[in-house]
Amino acid sequence: MRRIKDKGPLTFTMLVALLIALRQFLGIYHFTDQGFALGMVGFLCLFLWVLPHWSLRFIGSIGIYAVTLYHYFPLGQSLGGAWLAALWRQLRPLLTMVREEGFGRTPSLLAFSLVFLAVCLIAVLGIEYEVFSLSYLSLLGYFLLLSIFNHLEVLPESLIIVLCGLLAAGFRHFRSVGGTAWLRYVLLGGGLLGLLYFAAVNLPDAWVRDPLASHSVTLRNRLNEAGLYNFVAEVGVGGNTRTGFGEDDEVLGGALVDDSTVLFRATQDSPHYWRVDSKDQYTGKGWLQHTTDQPQVIEGANFTVTHSETENFLHRQEIELTFESLDTYLPLPYGNSQITLNSGFSGFVYFENSQRVNLLVNEEETRQLSMLSAVPEFPVSALQQVGVTQGEDFDNYLRLPGSLPQRVADLAKELTQDAVTMYDKVNAIESYLNSSPEFRYSKVDVVAPLLDQDYVDQFLFESKVGYCDNFSTAMVVMLRTLGIPARWAKGFSPGTAIPSFEERKTYEIKNLNAHSWPEVYFAGYGWIPFEPTPSFTNPARPGTPEEEVTSSSVASSEVTEVSTTTTTTQSSESQGSTSETSQVQNEQDAEDSTATTNRKISWLVLGLLLVIGALVVYRYGVYWGMWLLCRFTTQPLAKGYPYLLRHLERRIPRKSGETLLAYSEKVVAQWPELADLMELTRRYESSLYGGQKETTDSRELLLTVMKELPKKR
């Protein structure tokens, strides 16, 4: 029981500080299920508080750490030795990456492992060993890093961390001198905590920021001259990679960062995917072009590209392209396109098998072209009647490496066991990849497979975290195990529409819009795109209504990373929808409603904290005022007695000319609990009129009387 009494307030302050810090981390890494981690921190503090023996507290802390880590990263295993082995396989290359590249970008698996371990250690330091300086300063250091590297405003949270540390130190002091003062201290601290948070959140930042900025000019200039800001910029950004569309896809995988450089702009009626290239040979690590593709050079300003075998088209639209980069590939919409070169180009290079078009560039600075695009119609009812195409011409689109694990084919067979037609099988695998809760979309958490791991197998059965390259490659490979011709295509998602009131919109397509997806061959229709990557919608996919893709869609995407130290180019993407479907709109409405509710709840909680804080200050403020007077003066009686007298007179009026001793007798007669007031009055008069020195116990007498005064109303 003594431990519970002694450690209770320390546990409370540490819990508040840890919850505030952990919420920031979970928000930065976009963990949607934050409640579990925050709840486990509560259990961690509870175990450190109430468990009687250190061994139980140690085991409990280890268990909480393991369960929390497993909840967010199960890695396709049950909690146990197999999971620990899989976890180490995932962490090992991440540790190597951080050792070589630094902490500029840290995947969430490694970041969560380290941060939650730090949470456990800080909790032990603050609750078990009461090392407040190291524990709370560590949390403040974390908020400093957030402010520097993530450009977050964390002043309110930092102030609360400071207050929690002061409350913990204050309680420890009161505990050492004995008495029940610690209870009032905790209640007062809780009220101050609410008041401080309310003020920090709602008062203008400029009230604090502007004075700090004006008084720190000299210091910041010196730090800038010393190179600190330059170092922060280099480390914070991670500065050793760039992203964009690349040609080398032989090795895929790994965490990536986006690049917002604009590549080209398109003025058109409606958004669509931009196809550039396709590849047919899966190596187990990435993609190559196996089929020999002799380029056809076409001189002149006009060329027609036929991507579709169907004669049925939904509509036609005129498109105008303006290029900002020096790349020679031509991004095209699905369907048939009549291209006219306007400036900057002199001809075309066409690759028939991959259906890729490159441009011959001249010396003109402006690079523009226009095209008339016919959007093909892929009716689902008709595709349901199409069977699997066979023949030597399609062997390359069925080829798989002999090292592909059998469980990939087994999974594909299991997913399509109830599908009757080829289209149903394609749709079943696509739905599994883009809708299954087993998979998580992320570009920063992706771990490159080890040397002995297959790229698809590692994604499907171990990491289950990936971006477009993972999802698209997995779908192509699984379709091929079923004997369905498929290939890997890449290009760009629709891009971002520049706001305007015109019917025809101009879209900016950036490096970060680079994307990859599978294509499946349907006889009579040609190569048809599908979209297994979560949150992406390709308007050319069969069964996709046009209204699902609007001009306001903002596409984040797959991109390609080019390392400054290697020649390997890898695809990457950032999560985002390329369309506004009704489902997305409903989800947005739900999110808005939830956000509104959360704001109301937050204001309610803050209001309650404000009321509680005001009540605590009202009831115990008198005592704490006396405590401060006694604490910071060498003459507590000379300073404290007039303070006590003023508050007594507010409750029991003092008559004009009434002596202090007579007034004290009247007060004690009404409130016998203040009997020590008589002794205080005698000592005060002796000191005031007789010149006697104050005794050492006068401070304790003052505090004893003041302790009873708040109870008298």
UniProtKB/TrEMBL annotation:
Protein keywords: Membrane, Transmembrane, Transmembrane helix
Record's compositionally biased regions (Low complexity): 550-585
Alphabetical list of InterPro entries matching this protein: Bact_TGase-like, Papain-like_cys_pep_sf, TgpA-like_C, Transglutaminase-like
Membrane-spanning ranges: 12-29, 35-52, 64-88, 108-127, 134-152, 158-174, 181-200, 601-621
Taxonomy, superkingdom: Bacteria
Domain Transglutaminase-like as annotated: residue spans: 460-534
Region feature Disordered, mapped onto this chain: 536-593
Record's keyword annotation contains Transmembrane: yes
One Pfam family hit: DUF4129
PANTHER family, per database record: PROTEIN-GLUTAMINE GAMMA-GLUTAMYLTRANSFERASE
The protein, known as: Transglutaminase-like domain-containing protein
Lineage summary: Bacteria, Bacillati, Bacillota, Bacilli, Lactobacillales
